[in-house]
Amino acid sequence: MEKRKPLWDIFPEKQKKECLDRIIAYFLDERDEKIGLIAAEDIFHIVLEKAFSDIYNKGVLDAQQLIRTKGADIEAELDLLLRSN
């Protein structure tokens, strides 16, 4: 069985750094609190753990619905192409 990558590892390094920088900046700008990289990583990890599955599942459900809709459109188009004897 293949081991799943931690959620943290799905982001490219540049994107992870941008997220961490934004978290650090948020705490400084909005809460006047200085947090370090480890605290920002902890917050980022918690958000990913809590939200990632819901966001991922929503994307899959949206894709399924799109495929159903497009499939029905294709089926209707094919029905129009049928010739009567």
User: What is the helix fraction of residues, given as a range?
Assistant: over 70%
- Specify the structural class: mainly alpha
Number of strands: 0
Distance between the termini: 55 Å
Number of domains: 1
Regions with pLDDT < 50 over 5+ consecutive residues? none
User: Mind summarizing the main beta sheet?
Assistant: none
Q: What does the radius of gyration come to?
A: 22 Å
Mean pLDDT: 88
The percentage of residues in β strands lies in: under 5%
Shape: rod-shaped
Count of DSSP-assigned helices: 2
N-to-C SSE string, H for helix and E for strand: HH
Written account of the structure:
The chain is mainly α and 85 residues long. It has one domain. The protein has helices at 13-31, 37-81. The longest helix is centred in the last third of the chain and has 45 residues, at 37-81. The termini are far apart.
Question: Could you outline the blueprint of secondary structure elements for this entry?
Answer:
Elements: H1 13-31, H2 37-81
Helix pairs in contact: 1-2
Jot down its keywords.
85 residues, mainly alpha
In short:
It contains 2 helices and no strands. The protein has helices at 13-31, 37-81. The chain starts with 12 loop residues before the first helix and ends with a helix.
